Amino acid sequence: MKLIGPFKQIVTLSNLSLRGKLSDEQLEIITDGGILINDGKVQKTGDFEALKIEYQDAEIESTEGEQIALPAFVDSHTHICFGGNRANDFAMRNAGKTYLEIAESGGGIWSSVQHTRNASEEELLKTLLERIDFLIALGITTIEIKSGYGLDVENELKMLKMIKKAQEKTEATLVPTCLSAHLKPRDFEGNNQEYLNYIITKILPKVKEENLAKRVDIFIEKSAFQPEESKDFLLKTKELGFEITVHADQFTPGSSRIAVEVGARSADHLEATVEEDIKFLAQSDTVATALPGASLGLGEKFTPARKLLDAGAILAIASDWNPGSAPMGNLITQASILAAYEKLTTAEVLAGITFRSAFALGLEGRGRLENGWKADFVTFKTNNFQNVLYHQGSLKTENVYINGDRI
Ligand code: NIG
Ligand code: FE
């Protein structure tokens, strides 16, 4: 047993509801607190001095200076396994070029596919681990990672295998997702329907056999896959035993409805979601995931997070870190900016990047500093937890703990 502290403040996020709006008065803040760890889990939180007396056998791990502690963050949507770079896409978009012009001059998702296919396993693994370390340094210890830049059996498996290899080399929890349905690759001979069928018959059986992912994602959008064929695909993947998540309503509304209908764990993006679909989502257990990094990368509007919360939805916030639409990768900056634009309370933002996003990944017992929950937490050298979002990502973490161990 180990007692870590004292912390000026510990924000436990205990007792906050899974869905709907939250006020900051609901936050449980322990002052001069300690975190008692047993076997990688939180055994207890409370007054540091009182815990010290109560658990005399506990080894004491003293903190230096004034620090606050929060549950570690969960990034439930990333595409951080990729080759190449799309800085030119960003520059061209900002110079007024259209999607088509960018694609024609060698940009877009297809360019990342070519770079990822050409990358060696070693290169792919190295850059993936660098990005994972960047996220850990931000206090993120659970990271979802999608395939989707391979788009054929060989390269989708290559990506997923590198994610599995990365898991052997990091203390963070990686959650792989198969996004072979990101786009029909240009070199596939056949229509969308045939490509989706190829995923079902050729890619997913191997993914299952080699235990590379338990989740499947699809990009439903005019430029990618259409609603009906996507629904059919999702129902089939469900029959194969996969959990489902959807890139929904990014530019065109309608697909979040499909996500709810097929019982997806989450519907992500939702920048274009219309009022009636907000209600539909809010009445379901499908997590609505805002991806402010994509809005910032593309210069597009934000997900209507305020409306979703007011309607009672389960709102998560994730980075969507990818080489094209969301190259920043700083979830804390993005969530703080979303809060300012959408008027989200601190409790709503913190819930959105911890236990609510963990729920989107089907993970229980993480994202709160609660008895029996995974002891992943992050500390900042400050005396007030509000400073974390206030500085919009520029307040650096002091320490990151995974299973109660400082890493
Ligand atoms: O989540 N929307 C589709 N997919 C990614 C973008 C991927 C890319 O541009 O490479 C997204 O924004
Ligand atoms: Fe995405």
Structural commentary:
- The protein is an alpha/beta fold and 407 residues long.
- 38% of the residues lie in helices and 22% in strands.
- Helix 5 packs across helix 6 and helix 10 packs across helix 12.
- The longest helix has 18 residues.
- The protein starts with a strand and ends with a strand.
- The chain binds N-(iminomethyl)-L-glutamic acid and fe (iii) ion (FE).
- Fe (iii) ion binds next to loops.
Give me the oligomer status.
single chain
State the domain count: 2
Radius of gyration from the CA trace?
21 Å
Helix content: 25-40%
Short description:
This protein is α/β, with parallel strands linked by helices and 407 residues long.
Which key features would you list for this structure?
eight-stranded parallel β-sheet, single chain, binds N-(iminomethyl)-L-glutamic acid, 407 residues, TIM Barrel, 22% strand, eight-stranded mixed β-sheet, Urease, subunit C, domain 1, 2 domains, globular, alpha/beta, 16 strands, binds fe (iii) ion
